[in-house]
From TrEMBL:
SUPFAM superfamilies the UniProt entry points to: DnaK suppressor protein DksA, alpha-hairpin domain, Glucocorticoid receptor-like (DNA-binding domain)
MF (Gene Ontology): zinc ion binding
Natural source organism: Kribbella pratensis
Zn finger residue spans: dksA C4-type: 85-109
Coiled coil: 53-80
Residues of the Zinc finger DksA/TraR C4-type domain: 80-111
Name of the protein: TraR/DksA family transcriptional regulator
Alphabetized UniProt keyword annotations: Coiled coil, Metal-binding, Zinc, Zinc-finger
Length: 115
């Protein structure tokens, strides 16, 4: 599973870069809110900043979740259970693993919404 390892590694790098750029955005938004000395509750501009901040936060959470999935895939790789559907224990097709190296289930189970 050399290839899976490389794919996961590439995804992890990508996710970490994304996280770094998002936290850069986050600091900018926070700095902007500090500069304007805005009152989040009553100032319309403050409300926008609060909204942007929550947008960035939810993006960060998405990337963190993705990273956790990737880490879990590394664990399965180490345990020798990588590429096996967690739900039905059937092998996950290589094409799916190519597209989504951190996939935990086969396409059938994913479509059934068991993930
Ligand atoms: Zn399955």
């Amino acid at each position: 599973m050399e290839e899976a390892h490389d794919l996961l590694e590439a995804q992890r790098r990508q996710a970490l870069r994304r996280l770094a750029s998002l936290s850069g955005d986050f600091h900018e938004v926070v700095a902007a809110s500090r500069d304007s000395n805005a009152d989040d509750e009553h100032d319309p501009e403050g409300a926008t900043i609060a909204f942007e901040r929550s947008q960035v936060t939810s993006l960060v959470q998405q990337v963190e979740k993705q990273l956790a999935e990737i880490e879990a895939a590394f664990d399965r790789l180490a345990a020798g259970t990588y590429g096996v559907c967690e739900h039905c224990a059937q092998p996950i097709p290589a094409a799916r693993l190519q597209a989504r190296p951190a996939a935990r289930t086969c396409i059938n189970c994913a479509q059934l919404g068991t993930t």
